[in-house]
């Protein structure tokens, strides 16, 4: 197919996904917009590129960039492109949503990098202005720091794409601006000129920054949309990406809002009654969420990580706290109640939705009062690994930006993993079966959170588990609370890979965290559209 050539302003060609895929050539660098769980995922374009390669063996040796994890933890998203020969290098903010791409990296079949999600988001904005890269302290002391791993994920990956520099006597990391050839984006509606609105999208992400970055490098930008509108028919206040940075449009009428459902109105502006939001069931996850939520002060700006920390939002909604504080999600949502699980990044009843690069500016600038983040491993110095689980690549996502930019950080997770069972009732906890894997270890596999950096910055740090609470101190981590019913030696100290500092006294966790959740009437939520085969039930 002849390459698409368009004027900067004017009616844009309407293409099939296959025609868009034909614009990608061997050796290109492709930036894929979107986020995990199908948020803004240009799945039809990615699938068409996969099918072209399987049919023709072309293109080959692509470099793939993406800000967040793009996929459904199964086969979609950048996982569509996880074919030997199609991809030479992948650079992403998060990897766990595309296990097939993880497999290529772990088998040393591609070069692989993990950079902080916020860094890539802001790097696209700076690349769009033809700046040489992004200069930021974000990542110092972590595995992204080139004095540790430089964000490299395997032995095959040798090129440095981040370096340490000094400005004004202060260390900074300099992330190099990449060359970019093509972008695949998604929006809800495009008019004939390529102006884009995002009315049904759960989050804004960084579509405009990506488009500007690719155009500044002389590349082409293609967008997948659900609806096509007449030129100039979109209200200008709703246009978040102007047509001057778009080269072609693919209309995909069966585009679902997320990988889970056809449409959740509460993600895109409709107000959902608080009683219709999902309740967090009783269990260790609820215990962690309730204890963590006790750290929130009214009027706070709060961030939640994916996994166990997202239960804090459900506790806040149950208690009605969501009206006295604001949850801010790195994808761009402010206010409302963040969704959990595969749809992390969306929010019910959000008050605002801004572009992700500016959300990360806000986070990096200290705009958050407190953050609740996950933890795969914690070591005796207080370092946290949240990016490489049992040797398998997961990726940092927004974790590094958030954990280094927030004054108060609460890490949430279980004390042990795999197989742990509990009896939780009457304000007490009993361990029935211990987990097979110790998560508190002498030294973490990968440093996603640097305790030494936190001490330099004067951060307040807690580590909350279902049976014990620790805090970061100058000498390491200190055990400060134990759950009622738990044996300190057998159930806590014997399950650690090191001896923590012991507070005097060690307090008891509040028994109310170990009581059944309040009863509430059952409600009917929006269900996935069974007629759409691309959705998950």
Structure description:
There is one protein chain. The protein is of the alpha/beta class and 537 residues long. The protein has 11 helices and 35 strands. The strands form 10 sheets. An 8-stranded mixed β-sheet has the order 16-15-21-26-32-33-34-35. Strands 4-3-2-1-8-11-14 form a 7-stranded parallel β-sheet, with helices on both faces. Helix 4 (117-128) crosses helix 5 (207-216), helix 4 crosses helix 8 (356-364) and helix 6 (284-293) packs across helix 7 (311-319).
Summarize the structure.
With 537 residues, this protein is α/β, with parallel strands linked by helices. This is Acyl CoA:acetate/3-ketoacid CoA transferase.
What keywords describe this structure?
single chain, 537 residues, alpha/beta, Glutaconate Coenzyme A-transferase, 2 domains, eight-stranded mixed beta sheet, seven-stranded parallel beta sheet, 35 strands, globular, disordered C terminus
Mean pLDDT: 93
Total helix count?
Answer: 11
Overall, the morphology is globular
CATH superfamily of the largest domain: Glutaconate Coenzyme A-transferase
Q: Supply the helix-strand structural class.
A: alpha/beta
Weakly predicted, low-confidence segments: 523-537
How many domains, as an integer?
Answer: 2
Q: Do you know the CATH architecture of the largest domain?
A: 3-Layer(aba) Sandwich
**Beta-strand share of residues:** 25-35%
Q: List the strand order in the largest sheet.
A: 16-15-21-26-32-33-34-35
The tally of strands reads 35
CATH class category of the largest domain: Alpha Beta
What is the CA-based Rg, rounded?
A: 23 Å
The biggest beta sheet reads: 8 strands, mixed
Cα end-to-end separation: 37 Å
Q: Which fold name corresponds to the CATH topology of the largest domain?
A: Glutaconate Coenzyme A-transferase
The helical percent reads 10-25%
């Amino acid at each position: 197919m002849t390459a698409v050539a368009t004027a900067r302003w004017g009616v844009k060609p309407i293409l099939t996904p296959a025609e868009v895929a034909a614009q990608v050539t061997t050796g290109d660098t492709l930036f894929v917009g979107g986020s995990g769980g199908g948020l803004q995922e240009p799945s039809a374009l990615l699938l068409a590129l996969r099918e072209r390669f399987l049919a023709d063996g072309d293109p080959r040796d692509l470099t793939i960039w993406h800000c967040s994890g793009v996929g459904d933890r199964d086969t979609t998203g950048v996982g569509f492109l996880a074919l030997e020969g199609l991809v030479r290098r992948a650079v992403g903010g998060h990897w766990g949503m595309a296990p097939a791409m993880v497999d290529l990296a772990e088998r040393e079949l591609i070069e692989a990098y993990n950079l902080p999600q916020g860094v890539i988001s802001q790097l696209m904005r700076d690349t769009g202005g033809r700046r040489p890269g992004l200069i930021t302290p974000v990542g110092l002391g972590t595995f992204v720091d080139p004095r540790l791993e430089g964000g490299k994920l395997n032995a095959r990956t040798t090129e440095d794409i981040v370096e340490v520099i000094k400005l004004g006597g202060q260390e900074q990391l300099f992330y190099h601006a990449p060359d970019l050839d093509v972008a695949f984006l998604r929006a809800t509606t495009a008019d004939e000129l390529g102006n884009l609105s995002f009315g049904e999208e759960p989050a804004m992400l960084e579509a405009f920054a990506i488009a500007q970055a690719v155009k500044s490098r002389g590349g082409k930008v293609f967008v997948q949309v659900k609806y096509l509108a007449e030129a100039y028919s979109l209200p200008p206040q709703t246009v978040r990406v102007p047509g001057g940075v778009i080269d072609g449009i693919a209309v995909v009428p069966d585009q679902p809002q997320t990988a889970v459902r056809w449409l959740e109105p509460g993600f895109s502006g409709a107000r959902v009654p608080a009683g219709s939001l999902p309740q967090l069931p009783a269990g260790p996850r609820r215990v962690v969420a309730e204890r963590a939520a006790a750290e929130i002060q009214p009027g706070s700006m709060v961030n939640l990580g994916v996994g166990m920390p997202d239960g804090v939002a459900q506790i806040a909604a149950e208690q009605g706290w969501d009206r006295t504080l604001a949850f801010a999600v790195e994808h761009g949502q402010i206010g409302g109640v963040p969704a959990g699980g595969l749809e992390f990044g969306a929010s019910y009843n959000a008050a605002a939705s801004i572009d992700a690069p500016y959300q990360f500016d806000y986070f990096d600038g200290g705009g958050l009062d407190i953050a609740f983040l996950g933890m795969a491993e914690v070591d005796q110095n207080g370092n946290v690994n949240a990016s490489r689980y049992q040797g398998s690549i997961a990726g940092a996502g927004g974790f590094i930006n958030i954990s280094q930019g927030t004054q108060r950080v609460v890490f949430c997770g279980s004390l042990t993993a795999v197989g742990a069972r509990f009896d939780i009732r009457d304000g007490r906890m009993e361990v029935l079966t211990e987990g097979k894997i110790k998560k508190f270890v002498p030294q973490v596999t990968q440093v996603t959170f640097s305790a030494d950096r936190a001490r330099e910055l004067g951060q307040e740090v807690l580590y909350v588990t279902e049976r014990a609470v620790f805090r970061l101190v100058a000498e390491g981590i200190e055990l400060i609370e134990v759950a009622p019913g738990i044996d300190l030696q057998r159930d806590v100290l014997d399950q650690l890979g090191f001896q923590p500092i012991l507070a005097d006294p060690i307090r008891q966790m509040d028994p109310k965290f170990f009581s059944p959740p309040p009863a509430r009437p059952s409600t009917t939520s929006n269900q996935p559209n069974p007629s759409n085969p691309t959705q998950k039930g």
